From TrEMBL:
Residues 1-139 form the Nudix hydrolase domain. This is NUDIX hydrolase. Gene3D superfamilies: Nucleoside Triphosphate Pyrophosphohydrolase, Phosphoglycerate mutase-like. Belongs to the Nudix hydrolase family. Pfam families: His_Phos_1, NUDIX. It comes from Leucobacter chromiiresistens. One of its GO terms (molecular function) is bis(5'-nucleosyl)-tetraphosphatase (asymmetrical) activity. InterPro entries: His_Pase_superF_clade-1 (IPR013078), His_PPase_superfam (IPR029033), Nudix_hydrolase (IPR020476), NUDIX_hydrolase-like_dom_sf (IPR015797), NUDIX_hydrolase_CS (IPR020084), NUDIX_hydrolase_dom (IPR000086), Nudix_hydrolase_domain (IPR051325).
Length: 317
């Protein structure tokens, strides 16, 4: 039986403003002395780690950069020795120019040099064909001016006390011990995407699901009845539509924590607000277990270009 080895990495990029006022995109490549190759930051998962967490950690360990994941670019698969097969997931990751200027890279056991290379020169420098094929996805996005993106995360609340076991009104039902553990476990994987504006239903189970992440990031939590189950049950969707439109128009990484029956309408409105096609993929992205979430990546410069990519956690097999 073939042993599967999972890894994750990033294609880091920055937008440089030159002395004449023009801009150009630069992409980070790394040199690994042991393998004598040029590639992108990547590495294997630590025990208990998710793919997004690994991508962020490996990028920091190899380059010194702390990144936030943007759109998912794709998957590379190749065979290793000893009947093993490696699968590597990649995300784009924007790095501000100020961070690039201030970065004090230190050579390490894995990487002895890094370089910021003009986007049209990167492909020729990559050692492996699989990396070049992956980079072609990035090039196509760059050609359409879609690499500068933001994310909207739809999150279902953690496991709550069943209605039959609660004496409280529905919106006051608390999380169970398992639900609180789910909320705590969400922190590191949400942190890989870095949502900054946090919106939640006013229901206790939603507020308490996002509380640990909000505390970690020191972010305010915006409670709203617009995405509550009570409003949805009453057929009041105007507030939901207005919130989604405002989130898209703002163009900042955002998270909306809501309820199982509300999530499909949130996904639908997100597609409509960005000129995206409707389809089964939206239902799949909105059909989540407790504490499950889907990340929708959208173009910051051209939000009407549609949804660039969607990824759902926990991963569905």
């Amino acid at each position: 039986m073939t042993e599967e080895v999972f890894a994750a990495g990033t294609v880091c990029w920055t937008r440089e403003t030159r002395s004449d006022g023009s801009e150009r995109v630069l992409v980070l490549v790394i040199h690994r002395p042991k393998r004598r190759d040029v590639s992108f930051p990547k590495g294997k998962l630590d025990p208990g780690e998710s793919l997004p967490q690994a991508a962020v950690r490996e990028t920091r360990e190899e380059t010194g950069l702390k990144v936030r994941l943007d759109q998912h670019l794709g998957t590379i698969r190749y065979d290793l020795s000893g009947n093993r097969r490696k699968t590597v997931q990649y995300w784009a990751a924007h790095v501000p120019q100020r961070t690039v200027r201030e970065l004090a890279f230190q050579a390490n056991a894995e990487v002895d040099a890094i370089a910021w290379v003009p986007v049209d020169e990167v492909r020729d420098q990559l050692t492996y064909a699989a990396d070049r094929e992956l980079f072609d996805v990035f090039l196509k996005l760059a050609a359409r001016d879609l690499i500068d993106s933001f994310s909207v995360t739809l999150l279902r609340h953690g496991k709550a006390l069943p209605r039959a076991q609660s004496d409280e009104p529905d919106h006051l039902r608390p999380l169970t011990d398992f639900g609180r553990a789910q909320a705590a476990a969400l922190v590191p994987i949400l942190d890989a995407f870095g949502p900054r504006r946090l919106h939640t239903s006013t229901a206790t189970r939603c507020v308490d699901t996002i509380a640990p992440y909000a505390h970690r990031r020191r972010k305010a939590v915006r409670q709203t009845d617009a995405i509550s189950q009570d409003a949805w049950d009453a057929g009041e969707l105007d507030g939901l539509r207005a919130l989604v439109s405002a989130v898209v128009a703002r163009g900042k990484d955002a998270l909306l924590c809501s309820h199982r029956p509300v999530l499909p309408d949130l996904a639908r409105e997100l597609a409509l607000a960005t000129g995206s096609e409707l389809g089964a993929y939206l239902e799949e992205a909105a059909t989540l277990p407790t504490a499950g979430f889907s990340v929708f990546h959208l173009s910051r410069r051209h939000p009407g270009a549609g949804i660039l990519s969607v990824e759902t956690y926990p991963l569905k097999h």
